Amino acid sequence: MLKPSWNNARGSRLLSLFRSYADRITTRRVTRKLDSYGDWLRALTLTLLPTRKAHHCNACDRGVAAFYRFGGYTLICPLCHALDRERFLICALDRKLLGLPAGPLRILQIAPSEKGLSKRLSQAGNLIKGDIEPGRYGPDTVQVDLMNMNGISDLDIVVLCHVMEHVPDDRHAFRQVWSSLKPRGQVWIQVPLIYRQTLEATPSMSRSERDERFGGSDHVRAYGPDIKERIEDVGFTVARIDSDRIPAADRERLGLLPDTLFIAERPEQHNSD
User: Fold this and answer.
1) pLDDT at 13
2) pLDDT at position 269, please?
3) Which residues is 264 bridged to in the sheet?
4) Contact 165, 219 (CB under 8 A)
5) DSSP 2
6) At 48, which helix (H) or strand (E)?
7) How far apart are CA 216 and CA 43, in angstroms?
8) How far apart are alpha carbons 227 and 189 in whole angstroms?
9) How far apart are CA 127 and CA 96, in angstroms?
10) pLDDT reported for residue 153
11) Please, what is the end-to-end C-alpha distance for the chain in angstroms?
12) Can you tell me the distance from the alpha carbon of 206 to that of 179, in angstroms, rounded to the nearest whole number?
């Protein structure tokens, strides 16, 4: 059963954010954050000037003069703070590279920080925003644990944008998601692809080592392209959409970096059904 967020929404969100970021702090992350703050001020100042904007953020539908960086691998809108991964998914929808089935749909978005995407998905049907710590995302987010999705069923789409690298047992989570979907239901999965072969963290790894090797101190693995086989092992059929299918000029305008979206579909019939 989906559990509502705490009554004191603002207090619970602040507490959840504090707990989350306290567990993620490393010297490397603090340095990246300070650098990104200066880059944000630069990009915001340029964007607020009355000049022609060479870029566009499709998450907030506004022109921007420049995107700002967090580390060397993320481009962020200075106005709405949408990340390049969100703009890529919205662009895939706009260009029909990624299709929404006929609605109305029942959609679950985990860790719903992508507000522009949430707005788009809510237009397709009933959007459920969920997370294991719902207080991080506001009062309209409910508690969902990917390790135990009992009571959640008949979903048409589950959206997992940079979620699975945080999940302790991803194979179990994929099985849980499978059980929550209707036949022909889909999972949209984005992860940071770092290694040629997926590498799991060991219990002895420090936060700093995970940050250095996996791109985040709270990441428990670094995925390679073999994530496709992990998803298929559950029974899904898997397709992939690479960002290079979008013309280079559009990628430049939208501030898109190399990225991959995996589309996993639960077949109509399966031996385990």
Assistant:
1) 53
2) 72
3) 187, 238
4) yes
5) P
6) helix 27-48
7) 24
8) 10
9) 20
10) 94
11) 22
12) 34
What does DSSP say about strands 260-265 and 237-242: parallel, antiparallel, or unpaired?
Answer: antiparallel
Tokens 């060479």 belong to: 54
Amino acid 15 reads: L
162 conformational bin, left if phi > 0, alpha if psi -120 to 50, beta if neither: left
Residue with tokens 């979903």, as numbered in its chain: 155
Residue 148 CB neighbours (<10 A): 12
Q: For residue 107, give the nearest of 89, 84, 87 by alpha carbon.
A: 89
Tell me the mean pLDDT per 10 residues along the chain, length 273: 48 52 61 83 97 96 96 91 98 94 92 96 95 91 95 96 95 97 97 91 88 86 95 97 97 97 90 49
Q: Which amino acid is at 97?
A: L
CA angle 205, 173, 84 (to 5 degrees): 75
pLDDT given for residue 89 in this prediction = 97
Q: Which two tokens stand for residue 182?
A: 């209707």
Burial 47-70 (b: 16+ CB within 10 A, else e): beeeeeeebbbbbbeeebbbbbbb
Residues with Cβ within 8 Å of residue 81, at least 6 apart in sequence: none
247-255 own/partner pairs: CB under 8 Å, 24+ apart: 250/91, 252/55, 253/54, 253/55, 253/56, 254/55, 254/56, 254/57, 254/58, 254/84, 254/87, 254/88, 254/91, 255/55, 255/57, 255/64, 255/67, 255/75, 255/77, 255/84, 255/87
Given this model, what pLDDT does residue 5 score?
A: 43
As a residue count, the chain comes to 273
